[in-house]
Amino acid sequence: MRLAELSARSGVSTATIKYYLREGLLAPGRQLNATTAEYDETHLRRLRLVRALIQVGRVPVASAREVLKHVDDESLGRTIRLGAALWALPQAPDPDEEDPATAAAAAEVDRLLRTLGWDAAREIGALSPVHRSLVALVATQIRLGYPCDAETMAPYAELMRQAAARDLDRMETYESDTEMIESAVSSAVLFEPVLRALHRLAQEEESARRYGLE
Amino acid sequence: MRLAELSARSGVSTATIKYYLREGLLAPGRQLNATTAEYDETHLRRLRLVRALIQVGRVPVASAREVLKHVDDESLGRTIRLGAALWALPQAPDPDEEDPATAAAAAEVDRLLRTLGWDAAREIGALSPVHRSLVALVATQIRLGYPCDAETMAPYAELMRQAAARDLDRMETYESDTEMIESAVSSAVLFEPVLRALHRLAQEEESARRYGLE
Q1: Which residues, in sequence order, are bridge partners of residue B38?
Q2: Topology of B3-77 in CATH?
Q3: What is the Cα Rg of chain B in Å?
């Protein structure tokens, strides 16, 4: 398809598509002549992901480019490729190593992962920005005096493991690793807020059931 | 305790405490004489919540005041008091009623709630900003062409209902309704990010188990 059709089908203006092309967020089309290029379904799919990242997730262009670089890196194994793409998304801040609550939080997170038998997550450890941000978040709770120990977190972590298993089951229905990793990235940006809203709605439902609707 | 001790025990500077008092985020102490006031454990507890809202959650002062007004309103029933406090927190944007994806999303959310038998959530419906933001989030996915129907969401919603039941179990260990609602608010600000980090960490664990650590 030509640029005009790509724009019509994706709902993205031709000016914005040209901007994404210049910024390296979208691969160039197949050049038919000096002024015309041909685009295909992979461009349409990628454009959807770029919109999810930039327009919805408000991911900075440089981060989005980094994410897409990993999505496209077929030299990596699946776990590393998936991890690298997700790690390139904006993360919560790293823990403050000066704060004594950080050491306490790191110990709780380690105890949690042992309790759960999450050996891979323990092995990856602080290499993962996700692990580091979990430590930082637990440290904040400890510093403010709210309880957030391994026992409190464990049952929630089990529920999240069930959610993660379902995430990967869904991803495995895609034909290629690239599509699978694209879907993981779009889920991280688009589906995580849905999950949070479902959690809050579930709290309303549960509260109304227990205490009545007044 | 005097102001100096309240500051030492809470880790909040006296200048900041005075600011919170002026802004009505913290109730005045019991005035002992023209220059000295006496504070107690309820001030310490409230200060912890104000820090969670303002310093960690970056909730605007006006919203924080609104949240605390509902936390303290003993004339309300438990569900409404809880809901009002949580609804006063900053919410995701409302759906765009002009967008045709919004009607499709509202239908999917309604179908989801029917499937799940969440009758209270259906009855509250679009009165709840949580319900509205769920519709908006689903509409975004539909608009971008990602699948997000009732069948996709239902199993995640079931997991979130289990999480919500656990949330309320934890809250019910508090002695007073006020403490219970304070803890619900602090959880919404502090524990939701922990849950999100646990979900991402679970994805890493599950991915490493299925595809190996490379």
Answers
A1: B30
A2: Multidrug-efflux Transporter Regulator; Chain: A; Domain 2 (1.10.1660)
A3: 21
Look up the CATH number of domain A3-87: 1.10.1660.10
At B101-133, the pLDDT tens digits run 999 999 999 999 999 999 999 999 988 999 999
Q: Which value does ipTM take for this structure?
A: 0.91
Interatomic CA distance for residues A136 and A91, integer angstroms: 11
**Which tokens sit at B105?**
């999303």
By Cβ distance, the residue of A51, A141, A199 closest to B163 is A199
Inform me whether the C-beta atom of residue B147 falls under 8 Å from chain A C-beta atoms: no
Question: Given CB atoms, is B209 within the 8 Å cutoff of chain A?
Answer: yes
In chain B, DSSP finds a helix count (H) and a strand count (E) of: 11, 2
Answer whether B6's CB lies under 8 Å from B44's CB. yes
Q: What SS3 class is residue B37?
A: strand
Question: Sign (positive/negative) of CA torsion B151, B156, B160, B162?
Answer: positive
Dist CA A68 CA B207 (whole Å): 19
Taking each helix axis as running N to C, give the angle between helix B14-22 and helix B41-51, from 0 to 180 degrees, rounded to the nearest 10: 90
